[in-house]
Structure formats: C-alpha cells, structure tokens
Amino acid sequence: MNKQARTAIPQRAAQGGFTLIELIVVIVILGILAATALPKFTNLSADARAASLNAAGGAIKSAAAMAHGQTLVNGTAANATGTVTMEGSTVNMVYGYPAATATALQAIAGLSTTDYTVSVTTGTTTPTIGTGQAAIQPASNPKAACYIMYTQATILGTVITPASVDTSQATAANCQ
Fold first, then answer.
1. In DSSP terms, which residues pair with 149 in a beta bridge?
2. Domain boundaries, the chain
3. What's the whole-model pTM score?
C-alpha cells in the first residue's frame, strides 16, 4: 500500500474585479468619446429649426400656387386686391397671390402660431422687411438671421411678378 502523499499546493484565487487603473482608463476613454460626440448633438436643434422653416416655405409655395389657381378660375387674377376662400378661411389676395400678411400666410399654409411667427415689420429679432414682404421665423428662439421671406406679387405696367418665397437664410448656421 504504497500511496503517494499528496501535497496541497495552494492555488491563488482568480481575480474578482477590475483594478483601479483599469477603471480610470475606461472612464478617460469614455470622457474623450463623449467630448467628441457632444458637438454633433448640440447642433441638431439648429438643423431642426432650419428644416422646419424650409418645410414652411414649401407649404407657402404650394398654398400660394393653389390660391393663384383659384383666382385664375374665378377670373380675378389680374385684380390689385381681392379675396379667396380656402379651407373655410378668407384669404386676402394681391394680383392673384396671397397678400404678405400674417393672417393670409397662416391661413393658406396652416402655419401654427405656436410654431411660427409671421412678421411684417422690422424688429430687434426680425430681419429687414420691405413693403409687401413678410418674414416667417421659428416662434421659439427667433433670430434676425434665421427666417424665410415671402414677397407678395407686384405689378410693373401690365406685367405681374408672381409672389416668391426666399428660403436662402434658413440654414443651420443662421438658426443656431
């Protein structure tokens, strides 16, 4: 009965967690990633304001074209003033296109007063607005450089210049 004697060799217990240095390295790496990603997320609000204004500009262009079509059908497109009923709202018209007034633009394009401000006079947070023009800006955080400009139709002699919408100022850089 020759049994070999077993000698107990103590084994080291496996590591149960991370060392303090490993945790600090991970936290530093996460901080660097967060610092590089943060500017991307902060600029999204300016992009959203610019996109919203461009959408409002498209809505105004479409609605103005429909209103002009209505005046052509009615035979009143060449009149200096007039009205058209669209979606139950009476819209003031100038030479067959909507007038540059807050009520006309909000009625034809469905611009909510909680989302957009329509200005017909120059102010501290509005751009320079000429006669027959209206500036549409975001209602929240309006800035003088962040707008779209609606210009109502005009006449020179017998030639009518159609209404226009300028969206060139509705950029993320202007709407920050």
1. 135, 166
2. 42-166
3. 0.74
